Sequence to fold (364 residues):
Amino acid sequence: MTFNHYPDNSVLLLVGTASGLFLLSSQDREHWKIEETSLKNENVYHAVFNAPGNYRLFATDNSNTSGPILRYSDDFGQTWQEPRTGIKFPADSGLMLKNIWLIQPGRATEPGTLYVGTDQACLWTSHDNGESWEPDAGLLYHPTREQWQPGAGGMCLHSIVPDYSNPQRMWVAISSVGCMRTENGGKTWEHVNKNIGARHLPPPTPLFGNCAHRLIQHPEHPDTLYLQDHCGQYKTLTAGDEWIDIQNNLPSYFGFPIALDRYNPETIYTAVVVDDGRYNVNNQFTIYRSQDAGQHWEELTQGLPGGEGVRMGVLRHAFCADTLNPCGLYVGTNTGQLFASNDRGDSWQQIADYLPRIQSVTVV
Fold:
């Protein structure tokens, strides 16, 4: 299978919503075409293509009627299949699959490998392009699991970061457990949450119990990661051993997504919201950008809506950046609008409206 379904140099967005998966394509990042897939009424938390050169499309279908199913398509969403061996907890775990949250393609050196994060919190791996799945036993039977507690959205493993510099190292983030790291390919995992605030828990700051929201890795310095947490924005320069607060001048500590500019990876983006309402601060939908790795944040509003009654939120996987230069940014809202910028966030245009609640946006 190839990508010739679309013209050369196309940018393709996969937009997962509460009622279906949509594809948006553009050759110039200004004019966009929107298409439905045959997942028209399903609750799609996340969708991705596997590694370049394959283009098998995966989507999480968290149907209220048939339960959570991982699906894949080899014809750009026209028809869908299920894995031969799906995602199912072993009987001795006592756990039940509630939702499938995230699909993460493997490293460039492992093109047939994918990872999935679920609620109940577990990491799943496939080495045959999604045909069969196995749980990570180190997480599934972790000695602290009985003490884990769910966040408001469940006990979801929502971020998976396979270290591109070390095939044995990986990080995951779980709500509301926090960040965890393995150095031995998943045999054992340790909690790595030092210095992360926990306003919802009594002091001292616990080893785990933090409500991590989104975790990403710096593309040039593998020990540097950025975290959007329930209690603020953080970065680590030590692979998670210690975290640094980069909240600084942001108007709210609460938000879900975080993204970065691959060609200027000290430039990071987020969308913070009012904690008790999960919508934009001060009647203005705003994306925040830091060009110095979190020391200072600037407001990006050109082309974004503002005024009385503007109430938009952005979920943890509904914000992403492409790998072009200048960086393109794509953000979907929980009220069904999709905005794009082709100039690193300096200006924005609305490229879709009246969609169902947007739960994820990923870009090829």
